[in-house]
């Protein structure tokens, strides 16, 4: 468990991680947690990098690598037109690759594609249950609407530390939390006697910035992959027929 002086209260987003990895210069707004926001202006770049390095240590290696390949910080208004038309000719291979690189299957069950971690929503049939804009919102802004079936719990301890994670076990004498969705097996046990307040977290366990390492075409193929339920034979992946040129009319 990290001490309060070393742990952010808000999980760093992939886009913020990319900015810091690329520039090593200060903290972006997304990376600034409640505690770090109160640090004096003399808080050094070296300290910033140390905190970010500590936070990134909980991410799988390919996630950190992907943060380094940051493309852009996508906005809702930019991506709505991208996903509005998923007509045939999309790439199954690319959609599947983005699903893997974005770590979707690490957390979420998705038909025969992935089993998930057991503490995140099941994405099976997500394309038929929700509209594209709702799915996009849940990816871009995970904390906008929190899933009551998979809440994060915030514990305030007597020593001033705040620990947030998914509650996987609760007994008369202890809390057991999974602090990382990527490593749910790495749990933290906290004696109940050390806890002065338990409350639902206002922040989703799912990090922001998951699409920021991908291009518009890659994101379009991801949405096609989700709507097709990972079926490579779905119509959306069929090649569009080539139109024969119309001969010019004779005068």
Q: What would you call the shape?
A: elongated
Report the portion of residues in β strands. 5-15%
- Average pLDDT, rounded to a whole number, is 78
Can you tell me the residue ranges where pLDDT is under 50 for at least 5 consecutive residues?
1-55
- Spatially, the strands of the biggest sheet line up as 6-5-4-3-7
State the helicity in percent bands: 25-40%
Distance between the termini: 82 Å
Continuous helix count: 9
Q: Tell how many strands the DSSP assignment holds.
A: 7
Overall SS class: alpha+beta
- Compute the CA-based radius of gyration: 21 Å
Sheet with most strands: 5 strands, antiparallel
Helix and strand sequence:
HHHHHHEEHHEEEEEH
Provide an overview of this structure:
The chain is α+β, with helices and mostly antiparallel strands. It has a domain at 1-70. Helix content is 31%, strand content 14%. It is built from 9 helices and 7 strands. It has helices at residues 14-23, 45-56, 61-68, 76-84, 92-101, 104-107, 126-129, 132-140, 216-227; strands at 109-110, 114-115, 153-157, 162-170, 174-178, 187-191, 195-200. Strands 6-5-4-3-7 form a 5-stranded antiparallel sheet, with no helix packed on it. A two-stranded antiparallel ribbon has the order 1-2. Helix 1 (14-23) crosses helix 3, helix 4 (76-84) packs antiparallel against helix 8 (132-140) and helix 5 packs across helix 9. It is elongated and about 90 Å long. The termini are far apart.
């Amino acid at each position: 468990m990290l001490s309060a002086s070393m742990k952010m209260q808000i999980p760093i987003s992939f886009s913020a991680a990319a900015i810091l990895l690329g520039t090593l210069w200060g903290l972006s707004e997304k990376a600034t947690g409640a505690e770090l926001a109160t640090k004096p202006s003399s808080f050094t770049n070296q300290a910033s990098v140390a905190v970010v390095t500590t936070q990134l240590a909980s991410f799988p290696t390919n996630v950190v690598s992907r943060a380094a390949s940051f493309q852009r910080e996508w906005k809702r208004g930019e991506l709505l037109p991208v996903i509005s038309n998923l007509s045939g000719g999309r790439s199954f291979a690319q959609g599947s690759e983005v699903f893997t690189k974005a770590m979707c299957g690490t957390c979420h069950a998705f038909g025969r594609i992935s089993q998930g971690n057991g503490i995140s929503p099941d994405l099976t049939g997500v394309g038929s249950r929700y509209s594209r804009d709702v799915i996009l919102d849940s990816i871009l802004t995970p904390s906008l609407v929190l899933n009551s079936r998979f809440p994060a719990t915030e514990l305030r301890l007597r020593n001033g530390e705040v620990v947030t994670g998914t509650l996987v076990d609760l007994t008369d004498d202890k809390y057991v939390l999974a602090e990382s969705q990527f490593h749910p097996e790495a749990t933290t046990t906290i004696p109940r006697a050390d806890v002065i307040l338990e409350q639902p977290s206002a922040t989703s366990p799912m990090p922001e910035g998951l699409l920021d390492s991908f291009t518009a075409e890659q994101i379009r193929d991801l949405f096609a992959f989700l709507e097709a339920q990972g079926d490579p034979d779905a119509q959306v992946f069929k090649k569009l027929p080539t139109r024969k040129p119309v001969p010019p009319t004779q005068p």
